[in-house]
Amino acid sequence: MHCARVFAALRWLMTVYFCFLLAAEELAAQKRSHEVFFEGSDHELHVFKINGKAPGRTLMLIGGIQGDEPGGFMAADDYADLSLARGNLIVVPRANFPSIVLNRRQINHDMNRTFSETVSASFEVEVVAILKRLMEESDCMLNLHEGSGYYSPDWQAPDRNPMKFGQSIIADCEELTHSESGRQIKLGEMARAVSAAINSRIDDPGLHFHFNNHRTKEEASMHPEQRRSATYYALYRCGIPAFGIETNRTLPLETRIHYHRLAINQFMELLEIQPETPGVRTEAPVLDYMVVALNTNMPVVIRNGQRVALRSGDTLQISHIEANYERGLSADIVGYGGLNDLRKPFVMRESTRIIVRKDHIAFGTVDIGVEGDAPPLSPAPAVTDRLQSLPVIQGFTVEINGRTQTVANGSHARLRRGDTFRIVEVNSASIHPANLKVNFKGFVGTPDRNSGEDRGGLIRTDRDLMPRFSTGRDGRQYQVVALYDTREVGRLLVDIEAPVSTKP
Do residues 349 and 490 both lie within one domain? Predict the structure, then answer.
């Protein structure tokens, strides 16, 4: 009886041991890495690599190469934490973070036209060098975009024709035998298979995806500019299938994210990469607190809507943002540094404001009051609540030449002189817009009754504006401010360029 108990105990110990070995093998096989390039710069680049438990092919996802296409980078972000049973992922959720923060297509030049060898030095070129290296490690690449209109192989309407990109899977040719590797790549076959699988889950035929062959290398191509794109480089230089996934940018954001995820999942299935499907997160970002250090003192916690009192010469550094999202966060100390001032010390000389953003969405603000001269070492900063908690403004809905668009709080709307402009509404999840006043500085809708409320008024930029109220008094940039009581809670800069000359 004693021997039986000993044998049972030994068998239990051996079972535990082998289970431990299996778990260790699985853990070793399933590796995950997060690498940060250009750390501390505005164009900080985060790369996530996920290796499955079983070996397989590698799919690379690029989001946010053009910053005003949130469906792509928000979909890619869902895959950064994915666990895989088989195969591998390389995920670059936000390739062009400065353009994402500013909600603009580009900064110096279009990053997706920077894969040729003739582009002048810039941060875009630095990022693209990393992307090129990652392509060499991949078996397939997807570049996630949002396009205008609906692609159709034949002309049906001004918004649905061969020159539109939306709801299409783009490749640079039908098929290719790569000159160096000899690999035969059937792009059209892959794209049609994925489109059919996606379309089986979309009820409206008008929203179906189609294969969009740009025939980029052909002399008669309608899209020769794509010869400088990520897909063209990946295909012709790296010898891997590469596709642009284009959703229609006018669809709801949740729908665009969903369609991108359908496409990614189908390509993963095609490559036999077995995932755990990520969840979709579309809730509004919420700031819990920031951790801020002053000089050499202990860090303090600052919450949304509070005010920090400093003395001139104090050094301020934001070390951490705690929010309901982990990635895509930035803090801009307005007038200091660049777009993202996280973990950077600044000597404070003038009063300002910290704007906290998730991608391009401003979701938190803290006022910084600077007065007098500082002693060698200041005490901890005086932190006070503002007049109640100020509402958070996400952005402004405006009309430019009759077309409605949303512009993020703290960013720019770009017009040409002669364009028409209308402030439609302020977008806020924390206050009803009726409790705000929105003023276009330099415009008076009703001269005999200037209330300072300019929503709804049509502004003709060639005759209705007063240059002396522009930021440089030269008529080139105006401010739209949203006020709660007398406190500014939102700002939009309207840049007005001279019209394009039509002279030869």
Answer: no
